[in-house]
């Protein structure tokens, strides 16, 4: 007849054994320590100075003092002495300090439900992979506020990388919005998921909007100064207005056909009385007539001169240009 039980190593009472109560009490002590196992500390190496009856510690590597030489075992305190037990594969223990259930597997006490932090992947209704570390298969997804605002942030590493949202059909991209390869916001579309055509871009520095054949924006110019606006293409049309919500200046408006390529030219299509066309001349800030605005072209740029008598904002819209 064996002397110990196979799972918990409880001592059996033997035939003709004297002092059977000693063996029985030892078995009860092991049961008291191991049934509904609770562990005060995992990877413990230093015995407490004043252990309480029933305390159990899961020992780590390098245990000392009364635990010396017992690495990896359970140290159970009772009747004024430490009882050491080898944990078995699959045993479960409740961590009193962390309020978490652990399981003994492959020589370590592992969390039954691992912390939801620093995960390598998470799949909801589907499986994640090395690229799509967060994958969700659902009819809808909801992100809501916790008191007031809610913002979704997509961050990229460098200016030439991409931070965007791609809309697909049959796993092939059809539309994309975000920062695609630069730092200006753009919306672009694709017929095949490979070749992309920009539909709208907003320049990060000033919010200037640009679409194929169209670009619009505004520029603030001090009095007796010149502002420079890069043209989206070497040729096209441009509408120019001096804008003021309280005091509109219609005479400082005009519509022009321009060439900012090798053959500088600025053709007036329509012009208010207070806007002068100086063609390919270089504007200095005082080139035009005092009290008026002036416009001219130079290589790749439109020049706007303000002589209105104070700082002014000019709005411009480029048409029929690439």
Description:
By secondary structure, the chain is mainly beta. The protein has three domains: 23-111, no CATH class; 160-204; 213-319, Sandwich (Immunoglobulin-like), CATH 2.60.40. 5% of the residues lie in helices and 43% in strands. The protein has one helix at residues 20-34, and strands at residues 38-39, 41-44, 56-59, 74-78, 81-85, 92-95, 100-105, 108-111, 122-124, 134-136, 162-169, 172-180, 185-190, 196-202, 209-211, 214-221, 225-230, 235-243, 249-259, 265-271, 275-277, 293-298, 301-306, 312-319. Strands 11-12-13-14-15-16-24-18-19-20 form a ten-stranded antiparallel sheet, with no helix packed on it. A four-stranded mixed sheet has the order 1-6-7-8, with no helix packed on it. A hairpin with a 5-residue loop joins β13 and β14 (196-202). The model has no long low-confidence stretch (mean pLDDT 91).
Structure, briefly:
The chain is mostly beta strands and 322 residues long.
């Amino acid at each position: 007849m064996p002397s110990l039980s196979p799972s918990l190593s409880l001592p059996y009472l033997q035939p003709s054994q004297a002092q059977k109560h000693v063996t029985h009490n030892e078995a009860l002590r092991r049961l008291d320590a191991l049934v509904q196992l609770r562990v005060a500390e995992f990877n413990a190496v230093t015995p407490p100075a004043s252990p309480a009856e029933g305390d159990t510690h899961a020992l780590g590597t390098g245990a000392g003092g009364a635990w010396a030489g017992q690495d990896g075992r359970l140290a159970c305190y009772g009747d004024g002495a430490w009882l050491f037990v080898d944990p078995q594969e699959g045993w479960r223990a409740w961590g009193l300090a962390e309020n978490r259930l652990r399981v003994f597997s492959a020589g370590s006490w592992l969390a039954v439900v691992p912390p939801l932090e620093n995960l390598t992947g998470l799949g909801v209704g589907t499986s994640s992979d090395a690229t799509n570390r967060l994958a969700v298969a659902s009819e809808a997804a909801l992100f809501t506020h916790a008191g007031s605002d809610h913002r979704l942030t997509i961050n990229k590493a460098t200016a030439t990388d991409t931070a965007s949202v791609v809309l697909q059909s049959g796993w092939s991209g059809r539309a994309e919005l975000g920062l695609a390869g630069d730092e200006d916001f753009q919306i672009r579309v694709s017929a095949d998921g490979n070749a992309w055509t920009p539909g709208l871009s907003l320049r990060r520095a000033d919010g200037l909007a640009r679409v194929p054949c169209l670009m619009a924006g505004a520029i603030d110019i001090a009095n007796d100064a010149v502002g420079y606006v890069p043209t989206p293409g070497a040729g096209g049309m441009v509408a120019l207005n001096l804008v003021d919500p309280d005091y509109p200046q219609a005479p400082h408006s005009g519509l022009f056909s321009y060439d900012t390529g090798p053959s500088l030219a600025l053709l007036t299509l329509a012009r208010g009385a207070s806007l002068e066309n100086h063609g390919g001349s270089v504007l200095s800030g005082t080139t035009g007539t005092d009290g008026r605005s002036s416009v001219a072209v130079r290589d790749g740029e439109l020049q706007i001169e303000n002589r209105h008598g104070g700082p002014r904002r000019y709005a411009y819209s480029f048409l029929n240009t690439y």
